[in-house]
Backbone:
């Protein structure tokens, strides 16, 4: 099996190192040929995964057609809001009988409200698709920190294939058939992580953080089930597992954005200071908000985060409004 990674960010690079360590032939493609050339020469990705030496077995190919010509698995590691454009470039080279699509990004497309499997269906038509998700920061995976994730696919044989490609003594992969639940878990937890960061930025302590994670997973499960996912999926790695790590880790870009909001900084200033790093939750929040409206599902945390990001509501007022909602049963 040959794998081509589309995207030169930290997560795609970290997974390329896992594959290379498993003796899987892997090629990386990115949108900026000069940077690919630099990565090949220095064997580092200093922008997105600094301090990690890249295995010599990883190949770098700036020509998209050449990058995918021998691939069996196409690994999509492009931020959600840029993925449609990359897929349109890839489509002329796509071979439905040959290529398995594996997505590792986490988000909801802002205008269409679509999950990534729906975006790939738009561009590529019916195809073999899987998603890999879970509590897995690139910085730790690249350093071989023990990690567990889940691969979801409609075909059990494809989930098993992904499992075999990636598993080793530090990277454990479980299987699932719930593509919708796994995708939504990865997308929605980023929105909740913004709220967790706000709690940290306001220095509110442990009680509100614990309450937020607990009510956040309940909210994710309600919305995920309404959209076709299995509620049990949200109790697993791509749900509560990913939520815990994203809401607590110093590596989390979404938690960082929330933390800065909690300290009083404006969103535009925060995003500009992050340069090329992407906090998927910022762009997924409008999609999550609109999907909840369309589904008739109550999502108070998502609603308040949307108001803070896009309606200039103060985090302190958002917190007050959450705490003073009508009494309910758990």
Residues:
């Amino acid at each position: 099996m040959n794998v081509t990674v589309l995207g030169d960010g930290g997560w795609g690079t970290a997974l390329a190192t896992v594959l290379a360590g498993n003796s899987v032939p892997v090629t990386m493609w990115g949108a900026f040929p000069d940077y690919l050339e630099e990565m090949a020469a220095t064997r580092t990705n200093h922008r997105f995964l600094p301090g990690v030496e890249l295995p010599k077995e990883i190949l770098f190919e700036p020509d998209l057609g050449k990058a995918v010509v021998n691939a069996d698995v196409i690994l999509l590691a492009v931020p959600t809001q840029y993925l449609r454009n990359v897929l349109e470039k890839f489509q002329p080279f796509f071979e439905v009988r040959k290529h398995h699509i594996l997505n590792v990004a986490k988000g909801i497309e802002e205008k269409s409200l679509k999950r990534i499997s729906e975006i790939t269906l738009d561009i590529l038509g019916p195809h073999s698709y899987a998603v890999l998700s879970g509590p897995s920061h690139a910085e730790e995976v690249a350093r071989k920190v023990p990690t567990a994730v889940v691969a979801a696919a409609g075909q059990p044989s494809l989930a098993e294939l992904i499992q075999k490609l990636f598993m080793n003594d530090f990277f454990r992969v479980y299987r699932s058939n719930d593509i919708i639940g796994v995708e939504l878990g990865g997308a929605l937890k980023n929105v909740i992580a913004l709220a967790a960061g706000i709690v940290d930025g306001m220095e509110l302590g442990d009680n509100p953080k614990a309450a937020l994670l607990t009510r956040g997973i309940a909210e994710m499960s309600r919305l995920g089930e309404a959209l076709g996912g299995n509620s049990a999926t949200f109790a697993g790695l791509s749900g509560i597992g990913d939520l815990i790590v994203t809401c607590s880790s110093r590596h989390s870009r979404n938690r960082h954005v929330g933390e800065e909001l909690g300290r009083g900084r404006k969103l535009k200033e925060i995003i500009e200071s992050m340069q090329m790093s992407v906090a998927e939750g910022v762009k997924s929040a409008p999609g999550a908000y609109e999907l909840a409206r369309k589904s008739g599902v109550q999502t108070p945390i998502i609603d308040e985060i949307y108001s803070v990001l896009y309606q200039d509501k103060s985090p302190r007022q958002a917190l007050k409004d959450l705490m003073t909602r009508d009494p309910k049963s758990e």
Remarks:
- The mean pLDDT is 96.
- The domain at 3-177 is CATH 3.40.50.720 (Rossmann fold).
- The CA atoms of residues 26 and 58 lie 6 Å apart.
- The chain has two domains: 3-177, 180-323.
